[in-house]
Design goal:
By secondary structure, the chain is of the alpha/beta class. It folds into two domains: 127 residues, D-Maltodextrin-Binding Protein, domain 2 (3-Layer(aba) Sandwich), CATH 3.40.190; 106 residues, Periplasmic binding protein-like II (D-Maltodextrin-Binding Protein, domain 2, 3-Layer(aba) Sandwich). It is 39% helix and 19% strand. It is built from eight helices and twelve strands. The strands form three sheets. Strands 2-1-3-12-4 form a five-stranded mixed sheet, sandwiched between helices. A five-stranded mixed sheet has the order 9-6-10-5-11. Helix 2 links the parallel strand 1 and strand 2. The longest helix is centred in the N-terminal third of the chain and has 34 residues. It is globular, with a radius of gyration of 25 Å. The termini are far apart. The N terminus is likely disordered. This is Lipoprotein.
Length: 280
């Protein structure tokens, strides 16, 4: 009996040592990961609608297979996502184009960097009262975004429609109401916060609505009276803190967006989006 007891105690001791060794190995691995700057719990900010949907449906499952824990934080404005990223409560965000990012970062002295274009819902002109551009009448009310970058996009489209004429020689990406040389259709132009534009459809003749807010409000891109032919400088970009741009979690985010799995999701779930070069 005594020999048997000694044998059992020896086995217990051996198993304890093995368990301890495994635990130490895991702790050492975790410590090494932290030492190497690896990050496995990510908070990604996005405006409610297609860009948060892209992450939840496409990017999150891919990264979870690599051991990441992903939390998507939704926003309803274009200010807080960048502030939260700069302050460190987010690790990345997806909601803005490079021109907006550049101006916002300069105005607020933030160090943020766009690292990748993502499939983008174009800004469009919508109406509940009219079915085409030909329905325009003098004195019509047109609502558009009040932030400088997206307002310039809307004014440029109005110029293309022939409803207004912008001053010659201006930078169209910086156009504002003061750059209107001629209001050909005598429009009443009302700038509003981007998130409020879908609601303005009840009263306005036409409304310029960013694609993400249009979709979030239940509109479909194909319902637009006109859609912007989105150039590269208006494509939505995955944005991170500049100090993080070369870290592994950013590389893994980029790889997830460029994956064949995400392209399949884009083709199936995000019809009408402007695709970045890596998905063409």
């Amino acid at each position: 009996m005594k020999t048997k007891s000694v044998f059992i105690m020896a086995l217990i001791l051996i198993f304890s040592m093995i368990a301890s060794a495994c635990g130490s190995a895991k702790e050492e691995t975790a410590a090494a990961g932290k030492a190497n700057g690896e990050k496995k719990e990510l908070k990604i900010g996005a405006t409610a609608g297609p860009y948060s949907d892209q992450i939840n449906k496409g990017i999150k499952p891919i990264l979870e297979k690599k051991g990441y824990k992903i939390e998507v934080v939704e926003f309803s404005d274009y200010v807080q996502p960048n502030k939260a990223l700069a302050e460190g409560s987010l690790d990345a965000n997806v909601f803005q184009n490079p021109l907006y990012l550049k101006k916002f970062a300069q105005d607020h002295n933030l160090h943020l960097t766009g690292v990748l274009e993502v499939p983008t819902a174009p800004i469009g002109l919508y109406s509940r009262k009219h079915k085409s551009l030909n329905d325009i009448q003098e004195g019509a009310t047109v609502t558009l975004p009040n932030d400088p970058v997206n307002q310039a996009r809307a004014l440029t489209m109005l110029d293309q429609f022939g409803w207004i004429k912008l001053k010659e020689g201006i930078d169209p990406t910086k156009a504002s109401e003061k750059d209107i040389a001629q209001n050909i259709k005598k429009l009443t132009i009302l700038p509003l916060e981007a998130a409020q534009l879908p609601r303005s459809l009840d009263d306005a003749d036409y409304a310029f609505i960013n694609g993400n807010f249009a979709i979030a409000s239940g509109l479909k891109l194909k319902e637009a009276v006109a859609l912007e032919k989105t150039p590269p400088h208006y494509m939505i970009v995955l944005t991170v803190r500049t100090e993080d741009k070369d870290k592994m979690f950013v590389k893994d985010l980029v790889e997830a967006y460029k994956s064949s799995e995400f392209k399949e999701i884009t083709d199936k779930e995000f019809e009408g989006f402007v695709k970045p070069d890596y998905q063409k």
